[in-house]
Specification:
The chain is built from 26 helices and 3 strands. The chain is mostly helical. Among the domains are: about 120 residues, no CATH class; about 260 residues, no CATH class. A 3-stranded mixed sheet has the order 1-3-2, covered by helices on one side. The longest helix has 30 residues.
Length: about 575
């Protein structure tokens, strides 16, 4: 839902985690300031605030009523004024820093909302919104006591509760009222068509969630909302598709805004320059490593692309064995982490699970599922692997995530020492809500994930090292393909061909990549290699300061203990706190 100013805050929530009750004085003060942001968020998107753990919102739904843009912006601007006033009065340096992070988040939200409202026709993926509205409550990590609220929420979506209009009708009205505004750009046709293709999976997924519980009396609400969702899809076909744009590219100022929101403070041209250089360096490493693997495996080729193809063929994992294999790889990586003293491991196990069909349709890539942030009672993140389907002959369809050599790097990125450890540290270390949530951007999150791959790679089997380099090559490719596509310097067909033929990525993943750059999340994919470069630079500069006193385990533990700090603030913390502490 790109027309309301909570868009950036909701993106933040997707990776939010819990802050323990035992917090230092400055953290408690900071959390008091963060609370007023949460209060506004609860009014605008109770589903998102509820996922954070804000109590009392499980039955509530987002507001799409008349004047939502104006009302949202007024709330946001009033919030901004209050935060600025509080920063003026605050004397604690860390709390002031957190207030600055909150102010930046709200300013970014206001700017993005205005840009979208002034230039884009509102378009809502209602199927996905309602599915995740129910999925946010019916979750194995949630208390069973919360489940009945899903029925109340569903009935409000359907307009069966007094005082509530069907959610789909509100969405229609918000789009229709902007039809006659001159100069608005419609949603990208490919995006709308794909949303419609996946609509039945979302609708059926809601029924599967409800039917998989012992809840009673949900059928009326479900049948009403399912019919409304199908009617909404007819509206999209009849009234939105004819207004959709054929050119996936965003207006230039909206693309620049997207880069800023993901945490990237470079121009598209600078990204292309940096990434193409890195791409060639990584490819050179792969060309040197591939012959060693070919000799070890008995392959009759030295071409890294052909070696990767044979690794995929020889190491294919069946869908019913996927979970066991990833758990075994995780245990092996944990042994490496302990042996090489890379980082301090939590005492508890990391969670891995297979996604449902609806979750896979909504998010077809492996990812981390976070628990709630506030009121956390022991919930932790899960590494989620997309569901594989079985062919009629009993064989399993394969992806780039379902072969043995690829499992190493994916586990290092999503689980340990990557995102699972990154966010688990936030749960356990007691950082402020601001540093756990509102400082989030893809640069600091995904930069750590790619860096985590790099610190494990030297200790992997050769085939695991090659695929780790391939994944890094893919991330460098993202950092130049995304801006090149959005500047019109390359076509989607050319980008997909490069991904498949030079990066040795499968057709399905390559297609998802092109969709990601062009209309799903323009700008976001640049953040991986950009953030990784920031982390590598910070480590090098820290080593230069400490020399023989550099302790990588202590360095990595310190980094994770800081929460989701932007690179420039993280660097300041390392140089003013970590380095002096190690030198003493």
């Amino acid at each position: 839902m790109q027309t309301i100013s909570v868009t950036r805050l909701i993106a933040i929530i997707a990776f939010a985690f819990a802050v323990p009750a035992a917090a230092s004085d400055w953290v408690e003060k900071s959390n008091e300031h963060a609370q007023i942001v949460l209060d506004v968020l609860a009014k605008l998107s109770p589903e998102g605030a509820g996922q954070l753990g804000v109590d009392g919102l499980d039955e509530e739904i987002s507001d799409l009523g008349p004047g939502i843009h104006e009302r949202t912006q007024k709330l946001s601007r009033d919030l901004l004024t209050e935060l600025q006033s509080r920063r003026t009065r605050e004397t604690d340096s860390k709390v002031r820093q957190d207030l600055g992070i909150l102010i930046q988040a709200v300013e970014d939200s206001i700017r993005s909302a205005d840009l979208n409202y002034e230039q884009m026709l509102p378009y809502f993926n209602i199927n996905q919104t309602i599915f995740f509205g129910v999925r946010g409550i019916i979750d194995p990590q949630n208390s069973r006591d919360r489940y009945p609220a899903a029925i109340a929420r569903l009935e409000k979506y359907a307009g069966l509760t007094e005082g509530y209009e069907p959610f789909t009708e509100q969405a229609k009205a918000r789009t229709r009222e902007r039809f006659d505004v001159d100069g608005l750009v419609g949603p990208y046709r490919g995006e709308v068509e794909q949303d419609l293709e996946r609509a039945d999976t979302m609708i059926n997924g809601i029924e599967e969630l409800l039917a998989g519980t012992d809840l009673q009396g949900w059928q009326e609400g479900y049948e009403a909302v399912a019919a409304q969702m199908r009617d909404y899809n007819d509206f999209v076909r009849a009234e939105v598709l004819p207004r959709a744009r054929d050119d996936y590219r965003l207006p230039p100022d909206l693309y620049a805004d997207a880069l800023r929101n993901w945490g990237v403070d470079a121009t598209p041209e600078e990204l292309i320059e940096q990434a193409t250089k890195g791409y060639m360096d990584i490819r050179g490493e792969m060309e040197a490593l591939a012959p060693l693997i070919a000799a070890e495996k008995g392959y009759d080729t030295n071409d890294y692309r052909e070696v990767i193809a044979q690794l995929k063929r020889d190491g294919a994992i069946d869908g019913d064995k996927l979970l066991d294999h990833y758990n075994a790889v995780l245990r092996d990586i944990e042994e490496i982490i302990v042996r090489e003293k890379l980082i301090s491991l939590p005492e508890r196990d990391a969670g891995i699970r297979i996604a449902s069909a609806a979750e896979t349709a909504a998010q077809p890539a492996p990812h981390l599922q976070p628990p709630r942030l506030i009121g956390n009672t022991g919930e932790y993140p899960y590494f989620v692997i997309p569901l594989l389907t079985q062919n009629e002959d009993g064989s399993w369809q394969q992806t780039d995530d379902t072969y043995e050599a690829g499992a190493w790097t994916l586990t290092a990125h999503e689980a340990r020492p990557g995102h699972e450890m990154q966010f688990s540290s936030i749960v356990e270390s007691g950082v402020s809500i601001t540093r756990a949530v509102f400082a989030f951007n893809s640069v600091n999150v995904e930069g750590w994930g790619l860096y985590a791959e790099a610190i494990v790679r030297p200790f992997l089997p050769l085939e695991g090292q090659l695929i780790s380099l391939q994944y890094r090559l893919m991330r460098a490719g993202r950092m130049f393909l995304d801006p090149m596509l959005n500047l019109g310097l390359i076509t989607p067909e050319e980008a997909k061909s490069l991904i498949m033929n030079d990066m040795a990525i499968g057709e399905s993943w390559a297609q998802n990549e092109v969709e990601r750059y062009t209309y799903r999340m323009p700008g976001q994919a640049t953040a991986y290699y950009y953030g990784y470069s920031k982390m590598q630079a910070l480590r090098a500069q820290t080593e230069l300061k400490l020399r023989d006193k550099f302790d990588q385990q202590a360095f990595h533990d310190f980094i994770l203990d800081q929460g989701m700090l932007p690179p420039h603030i993280l660097k300041q913390a390392v140089m003013t706190e970590f380095v002096p502490g190690q030198l003493n």
